[in-house]
Amino acid sequence: MKADKIPYEKQIFVCTNDKKGEKPSCGDHKGEEIFTELRKIAKDRGLHPRIRVAQAKCLGQCNMGVNMMVYPDNVWHNGIRLEDIGTIAEKYLPQGK
Ligand code: FES
Predict the structure, then answer these.
(1) Pocket around ligand 1: residues whose beta carbon is below 6 Å from it?
(2) How many domains does the chain have?
(3) Quick check: is 7 in a domain?
(4) Residue 96: its pLDDT value, please?
(5) Domain assignment of residue 12, yes or no
(6) Which of 13, 26, 80 to mutate to test the pocket of ligand 1 (most atoms within 8 A of CB)?
(7) Is the pLDDT reported for residue 15 higher than 70?
(8) Cα 35 to averaged position of ligand 1 atoms, centre (Å)
(9) What is the 3-state secondary structure (H, E, C) of 2-37?
(10) Average pLDDT along the chain
């Protein structure tokens, strides 16, 4: 096994797990759509893959979704909704960076 430096400046993990209403999950609040839109913004702004938006398949806080964690910032966001995408993009996916 080889160890190396992390190849990304920043990683944003968005939970896209959808338990289809059987249990609370990020899918109840459009985690997949939030992930897809944030990744599109990262690509459109030329940030991807230096700043990588990745999907997670459960971050273990399903009642608090949509959940997102950001490294190396070491920040956790919960309760994310579609209307928060602009704020998230402004904070973590700045244009011209
Ligand atoms: S379903 Fe998103 S944290 Fe578990």
Answers:
(1) 15, 17, 25-26, 58-62, 65, 67
(2) 1
(3) no
(4) 79
(5) no
(6) 26
(7) yes
(8) 13
(9) CCCCCCCCEEEEEECCCCCCCCCCHHHHCHHHHHHH
(10) 97
